[in-house]
Amino acid sequence: MRRIALWASSTVAALVLLFGYHTSTSGVAATATTQEPIGASLTTTATTTTTGTGPDTGSDTSAGTSSSTSGSSGANDSQTVTGRVVQTQWGPVQVQITTAGGEITSVEVLQYPSGNGKDVEINNHALPVLVDETLSAQSADIDMVSGATVTSTGYLGSLQSALDQAGL
Which of 87, 94, 105, 166 allows an S-S link to 111, with CB 3.0 to 4.6 Å? Predict the structure, then answer.
């Protein structure tokens, strides 16, 4: 009789522990925080808000974008363009680019998933690689970062939106 009681109580305890365990993918989706951007810092003099119309590559998007220009000659104008927010399963991703003379001079990641330690670890590695690849390729035709496929997809969607708005 003792063995049956011990077995039943240990089974109940194991089930309580099993169903009481919360993983990072259960419940509410991880949220992104707007932190200090990853990439080069920039200074803008004027900001105009427009509506983004880039191609859809993410599951859900927000249309807010902004750009600013400075300088006096058309070929050397500096332009800052913010891509659309691409919603991923781990949180939103948004990219801002600065161009001068038809070339991308800097890239900042304004939003990225950072809802838990694993997101932060992945994105602290992946985002600088994506930014460097963008500056080297001068386009959105870059490789994804292994292990950060979701963030890479969101990054590429927002980057392409910014490039379309910049006319590149």
Answer: 94
